[in-house]
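Hi again,

Forgot to attach this to my earlier email, sorry! This is the prediction with adenosine-5'-triphosphate bound. I've pasted everything inline since the attachment limit keeps bouncing my files.
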Amino acid sequence: MSFDVRLTVPGRLEAGLTAADGDVVAVIGPNGAGKSTLVRALAGLVQADGHARLDGVNLLRVPARDRHVGLVFQDQMLFPHLTARDNVAFGPRARGVPRAEADAAAVAWLDRLGVAELAGRRPRQLSGGQAQRVAIARALAADPRLLLLDEPMAGLDVGVATSLRLELSAHLAEFTGVTLLVTHDAIDALTIASHVLVVDEGRVAQFGTPLEVSQQPATDHVARLVGLNVLRRGDLLRAFSPTAVTVDVQEPHGSARNRWPGRVAAVSPHGGTLRLVVRTTDGPELIADVTPAAATELGLTPGRAVWLSVKESSVRSYAAAPA
Ligand SMILES: Nc1ncnc2c1ncn2[C@@H]1O[C@H](COP(=O)(O)OP(=O)(O)OP(=O)(O)O)[C@@H](O)[C@H]1O
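C-alpha cells for the complex follow:
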C-alpha cells in the first residue's frame, strides 16, 4: 500500500508526504503551524485542493463519511448517547458486521486498551483518559487504512499519558495501515514514529526519519524539541548539545571560537542537571545544561549576565534545507 499526499488549504497549508504500510508519521511543529489543518483535510473536515492518494484512490475526492479513516482528536468526538461498547462497535456495525460479532470485537478492543470494564458506560461517565482510550479503540476497531491521531495524549495527566503511550506504540507497531500522529512531544515523535513531518508556518520544513530529524534538525523549533541548539551560518546549520556548552560569568580566555555574552532567562530541572535558557546579547536563545553545584557556585539565576562557549569539535555542521 502507498500513501502519497500533496495538498493545499488556501492561506493555511501547503504540504506533501509519502508513506507506506505500517508507517507512523509524527507531525510536529509550533502552535498554528498547520498540523491539525493537515489531519482535518485528510479526514474531510476541512476543504483541500490537490491529492491524498491511498492505494491509488484520491481521498480528497471522496466524501468524508466514505473515507474510512480512523480519527482520534484531542476534543474527541464519542457519540454521547452511546455506551463505550456501542461507540467502538459503531464502525464495524456500519460496515454490516452482525451485532453480536461487532459487540464482541468492541469489547475485545476495549480490553486491549485496558477499559473493558467500562464497556457499559456512556462518555459523560468516563474520565478524560478513559474516554481517550475508548476513542482509540473505536478508531482501531473500524480497521481503517489511515489512522489520524491529533494529540491523543494531550490534556491527560502524566501517568495516564505514559501508560497510554506504551499501549498506543504497541498497537501502532502491529497496525498495517498508515498513521499520522500530531504531537508536541519529542519522545512520541522520536520513539513511536517511523517518519517525522515538521510543519512550520503552513509548509513542510523537514520530512525524514527520527534519526535524521534529531541529528540534523531543520528549524529552531525542531532543534528545541529534540533538545539541541541550532544556529545558522550562511547556508549551514550548526547544531550542538546543551551539555557541550560551557557557562562562565566572565569572558572565557580559552580557545573556543564560539562564544556569546547573554543573560540567563530561565532555569529548570532537567534530569540530574539544570537547564539554562540564555538570551544572548545579539543572537538567539541558547540552552545550556549545568550541574546544580556549578549553578550554585556561579549564582546562575534568571537575570545573571553570563558567557556561553562551545568548542568547535562539539558542533555538527550540515546544509540547511532550501527555503
Ligand atoms: N477554521 C479556520 N479558519 C481559518 N483559519 C483557521 C481555522 N482553523 C485554523 N486556522 C488557522 O490555520 C493555521 C493553522 O492552524 P492549525 O490548527 O492547523 O495549527 P496547529 O499546527 O494544529 O496548531 P496547534 O499546535 O496550536 O494546535 C493557523 O494560522 C490558524 O489560525
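Residues 193 and 288 are 27 Å apart (CA to CA). The pocket of adenosine-5'-triphosphate is lined by residues 12, 29, 31-37 (CB under 6 Å).

That should be everything now.

G.
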